[in-house]
TrEMBL record:
Keywords: Monooxygenase, Oxidoreductase. This is Antibiotic biosynthesis monooxygenase. The keyword Oxidoreductase applies. The keyword Oxidoreductase applies. One of its GO terms (molecular function) is monooxygenase activity. PROSITE patterns: ABM. Residues 2-90 form the ABM domain. It holds the Pfam family ABM. SUPFAM superfamilies: Dimeric alpha+beta barrel (SSF54909).
Amino acid sequence: MFRVVLCLRIHAGREQEFERVWAANTAAVADHPANLGQFLARSADSESTYYIGSDWVDEPGFREFENSREHVEHRQKLHPYRSHGSIRMMRAVPGLVG
C-alpha cells in the first residue's frame, strides 16, 4: 500500500467552508480505481491546519491519479482555501490492529 498525507494550512475563518468543499468533492479521489480510501483531519493544535490522507494500491496508481484531469479539478476547488501546504508519501509496512 502507498499512503499520501497532505498537510494544509487554511486561511483563517475559512475552515468550515473548506471542510464542506472537501467533503462535497471526495468522489474525485475515491472513484479512482487505485484509491483505497481517504480521510480529513484537523490538527488538535491549530484550527487552521488540516491533514488529508489517502491510501493507494501502489505508487504508480497514485501517480496516474496525480497526473489526471480529475486531480487537477479537485485541487483547483480546494486551492482558494489554503495558504500553504506540504506532501509526504510513504509505503506502508506491517502494523498493529487495536
